[in-house]
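job 3f2a | input accepted
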Amino acid sequence: MEKLRIIGGNRLSGSISCSGAKNAALPMLAGTILSDQPITFQNLPYLQDITTMFELLGSMGADITLNENMDFKISTATLHDFEARYELVKTMRASILVLGPLVARYGFARIALPGGCAIGTRPVDFHLSALEQLGAKIELKNGYIEARAKKLIGCEISFPGISVTGTENIMMAAVLAEGKTILRNVAKEPEVVDLADFLNAMGASISGAGSDEIIIDGVVSLHEATFEIPADRIEAGTYLIAAAVTYGDVTITNINSNRMNNILDKLKLCGAVITPYENSIRLTMSENFIAPVDISTAPFPGFPTDMQAQFTVLNALSSGSAVVTENVFENRFMHVQELNRMGCDITVKGSNAFIKGVSSITGAPVMATDLRASASLILAGLCAQGETIVDRIYHIDRGYERIEEKLSFLGADITRLPG
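job 3f2a | predicted structure (419 res):
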């Protein structure tokens, strides 16, 4: 099993480009099922989750090609198998996103109940209930979801709680439903807006994405489109924190700062100087200390849960005390015990992490437990004294493109070790 070896203490500086957003790309890849014409993607990130989605679509019969410009063209006109098997689904929860498109276009889907990071229970009840309201019949058999519908019919649906994938799945299903669908209490994440923009580029009629209510007027079919995957705000935020914990000077290009205001505001409170440009963000540290800042995660426009672990590290190295509250997933502090092994002073009580800043930490062998926990351990290793070995880095490869190469380019001493 591959590992990352980090020798801490180097100040990061320079410029790197932000990759395309995994959380935007995955639902769009699932959305190609809705059209019988080819869809071309630009700026698609090279990640394990993207590869898994390719394998899933390919197993159903999709044709996937790569051109000389590194753009991917996907055609689902040849789809013949409407099952997402457990072997592929178990490593990636986003596979549930093929459910809505399959039922909408083909009237049937058989999807293994999804797996992914073990950061808490993320039930698919919202997806299934909403599909039933659109007219699908749902059965759970032997660990699989079976959904059938002769024709989905638009209706008004109010989600009982905020669900990003639930919003995306039903938005895609409703695109080909007969009549108008109104979704209420929906997720407002930028990636939901991105998906709406993508579907509209294919000929869908969606309005209201980014607000509390999304309106979809069903269409008969979707057409060919070319779409560029927007930049990954979580990747950009992670590298900005890498600059902060090493008291560096780093510019992230290919990113619009407007997508990251809730993250950038917290970084400013920590003492970072943020300089936004038209298509890039620069972070420098004005003083040789980090101010503590309380964090409380919430659905967008609140603070993103996917940045919680990274800010936990930032607070652990601060000049005071802070409280980090996790309101989205109930099991997302598994990185804390590994950080404490490196010398951090963090106590978890329920959904709160009470953090006392320390002046320095030391390298240690640590084990990644999920995607963002992996990122936090790498951040800690960058500023720790001595050597840190991060094990189980297959988690990091799910969501960060060539992370060791990008950090090395900024001056980090980081090497991928063979398994």
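job 3f2a | Residues 116-121 have pLDDT under 50 and may be disordered.
job 3f2a | closed
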